[in-house]
Amino acid sequence: MSNCLVAQSGGPTAVINASLAGVVRANQLNPVYDRVFGGLHGIEGVLDDKLYDLTDLSGRDIEILKQTPSSALGTCRYKLKRGNDADYKRLVDVMDAHDIETMFYIGGNDSMDTVDALSEWAHENGIAKRFIGIPKTVDNDLVPVDHCPGFASAAKIACEITHATYLDYAAYTRPEVFVLETMGRDAGWLAASCCFTGNVDLLVLPEVDFDKEAFLAEVQKKFDEKGECYIVVSEGAHYADGTYLSAGDTANDGFAHAVLGGAGATLKQMIVDAGIVPRGVVQDLSRAARSSNFAQSLVDVTEAYELGMSAHMRSADPAFTSAVVGIRPRSAEDMAAGVYNAEFFAGPAKDFANYVKHFPAEWILPNYAGITQEAMDYFRPLIQGEPKLVYENGMPATLVPFNKR
Amino acid sequence: MSNCLVAQSGGPTAVINASLAGVVRANQLNPVYDRVFGGLHGIEGVLDDKLYDLTDLSGRDIEILKQTPSSALGTCRYKLKRGNDADYKRLVDVMDAHDIETMFYIGGNDSMDTVDALSEWAHENGIAKRFIGIPKTVDNDLVPVDHCPGFASAAKIACEITHATYLDYAAYTRPEVFVLETMGRDAGWLAASCCFTGNVDLLVLPEVDFDKEAFLAEVQKKFDEKGECYIVVSEGAHYADGTYLSAGDTANDGFAHAVLGGAGATLKQMIVDAGIVPRGVVQDLSRAARSSNFAQSLVDVTEAYELGMSAHMRSADPAFTSAVVGIRPRSAEDMAAGVYNAEFFAGPAKDFANYVKHFPAEWILPNYAGITQEAMDYFRPLIQGEPKLVYENGMPATLVPFNKR
């Protein structure tokens, strides 16, 4: 019996460890592999032979791992480049040294490309190693899945903070603008999800070229109509020429040594400078949105766990390689009605790699006015439910990261 | 039977509505007053005769009100100045018009001073109106209480985000610094509470004059020792001459029209400019920390509710006026052992007004190294427990603010 390896890559999420827990647990339920090794810091640590034996994690540790945010194995931004035979050979040497036949890689579209490239290279060179991808990303920008583990929990905390800060903002009478900034450099899914709360007056996405005059006119209109304006902006919002909002004003002011605030701070200042209101508040969700275990979506953490299990279970078939598991709606009608009804499927890794799924143009209302009902129906089933967390000392219990042991 | 009035003032908290709910519920259990009116937007709205009848809120609405963050009646920054007889008379006229004998004011030390001033003025002028204070503040800077409703929930979410973002930070190998900024202009309680997680390498408080060279030396030491440095800074951190960190660099760079980032951004840039690491991440908790209902401390929400009840119940005594209710430990030993054991007491409003309770110097470790065990023991009992929240559509249910109806 051979062993398997599982590693994590790219930006952490609130549920990426649930997928890891799923692989480990599935092997306890059906020991397809003798040992389940965790690779520390993604491919980077694996190349350096840094492994951690996860085979016999206790049931309790597996439960706590599911509610431990961020990447418990550590992560990396290192991309195995196609044609880098030295790295490929080194990886196979490490795998051989530990009798590892199968590698599971949990990551975004770059990692899915790595799965594709490694599989291809192994096939071409007659090397009997298998590579299987498990997707994750808070950006939700992967194809061909309906959605991606990590996104729903990020959307849930983003919605919760949107609503809480809107109520905070709404308690005041003084004229000020509120701007909430979310992650999302290329795709505006997370920013768009905040509109689910019904609190967002204006939404600025990377999918729509920013038009300063048109935007300021809408802000003015909101203040004229209702005396308040709650704005959500994606960090990747940009002008038609590609200049990011976050960088624009900084450069204009000849203040080159630092990015002093992102898109949110820029919008706030723009509105103040235009004389619409004398002040504003900026809330940058930053990393709090992607790694907040205290606001996991039950749908998300369950899916992430089951995707890990599904990948492991499918790998019992020795022909299963160069594949990625994903989620798609079983019934579009159910999902649109807010009923969760999803199907797990597997597809070729190349179908998951190197594409960016933007927030659909047909779901974006004109004039920064937010999202359509269809988009609301898309978000609704994803953020439902809260796992029953184990608390210790007043906080959700977490495992000590394996890369810190 | 006369009526009572309850209003909210100052910055919102996650549990200020629980105190409001406590007043309303206590009157349902023992109708000391015929009607319970909510004053919209604090004293500002009351002077404008903007009241909302809360007497008959349903049991469910009271439960939801307890988990509704921010100030459901709306808030104000308006301070009734001593000697402003016009405002005082106007207030009494509004109270008379609605047969209101007693006013409960939920707020910080400015509001407690208002309670004191109004009581004194009524007494001097032979006006049979009573004024009672119910404290709240996320800053925890009130005397003579042990702690103040609103702080514990802010500390709990601050700790949860500290731990989650630390784990996110710890997943990486690349050299970067992490800086988390909390509210707290004069007192560093909230920033200090983040140390409860055990994740904070360096803590920068308003209570200690900032010394750039000494601080950077500590940062360098952390990177030398462990390759990482997680820093928490209070927004009010300042140099010995009183200059805020948040304003300092901005002014130096001749960039006067805006505060471009707070203390956190300044520290990050200082560390990068010193060449210690090439990059950093800033997480500004901003308003998310004070109004996050999804992370209420059960101790906090229970105390806030019971303080509201206690104020109402004590007011059945017609001699009870110019008073504020508060919380102090019944047993210092229990609290130090992490066992919650608190006592509700009432004291003269003047004792609660116009003082700032700083984070104790004897609880601060030298060299930005954090807090003592005694401070940890202080925080522990406060952040315990999680209320069972009612969720609707994937989010904690909230009431529509009364000022928006």
TrEMBL record, chains A, B:
Listed binding positions for diphosphate are: G11
Keyword set, alphabetical order: Cytoplasm, Glycolysis, Kinase, Magnesium, Metal-binding, Transferase
Give a GO molecular function annotation for the protein: diphosphate-fructose-6-phosphate 1-phosphotransferase activity
- Which residue numbers mark the site Important for catalytic activity? K136
Q: Which Gene3D superfamilies match?
A: 3.40.50.450, Phosphofructokinase domain
Query: Residues that bind Mg(2+), according to the entry?
Result: N109
The UniProt activity regulation field reads: Non-allosteric.
Q: Which residues form the active site?
A: D139
Q: Which EC main class describes this enzyme? A: transferase
Q: How is this protein organized at the quaternary level? A: Homodimer.
Q: State the protein's name.
A: Pyrophosphate--fructose 6-phosphate 1-phosphotransferase
Gene this protein is translated from? pfp
